[in-house]
Amino acid sequence: MTLLDNEYKSLYSGYYHSGSSLEHKRNLSAECTVDHVRAVVGQRTWDRLIDVGAGNGSVLAKIDEAGSANELYAVEVSESGVSAIRALKLPHLKEAKLFDGYSIPYPDKFFDVALCIHVLEHVEHERLFLRELARVSKELILEVPLEGGLKIAKSIQQTAKYGHVNHYTVPGFLYLLRTVGIQPIHYSVVTSSAEYERHLYGKWRGSVKNLLRRALLASFPSIAPWLLAYLLTVHCKAVDK
Asked: What is the per-residue pLDDT across 38-56, written as a single tens digit (0 to 9) for each?
């Protein structure tokens, strides 16, 4: 029996073939991710870091470039993703493995930190997945989109085609973590870069959207995520129950 539904296996199986038109978008997103990680942990260096749901390795490449870990590992459900990661030939990459989406093939607390970026919104059995992340690592850095606000019906309609099966708010996500014994240490509500939004929406529209998003967040930080889409980056640790 597999926990990963065949529909999602098919969706992600060839998602990361080289030459994809999404490659530039992923690289821009990866640059944002490194900035967001630094916002919650500062300039940290770890011995072993694993990227769970590593995609095409764009985030790992930025982590490697920044010298944030002595050893890098990756697991990914897509064969095309694993192939893309290995093709990068990252200097600090030790292993890139295919996994079933839930069982991470490493011993307890093998990693200093597990990175999981824009994965949980795709996970059908999120608590099982989170417990497994906490099993193999001492610390976790998670990032999810905040799409569960007042426009959730529209968000569901727009993101279903990308495989989003979970939609989060800040209090809802933090509570989810605590229900599986994961303690948030520090979190930050953030936006993507102006360059990323210009890539998505065009030069002028993207610039205006980004400016509005940042202004609203700066002025009304508690209200903004209920009105517009943002990102939530959380640094946390496992708590023994």
From this structure: 999 988 899 999 999 999 9
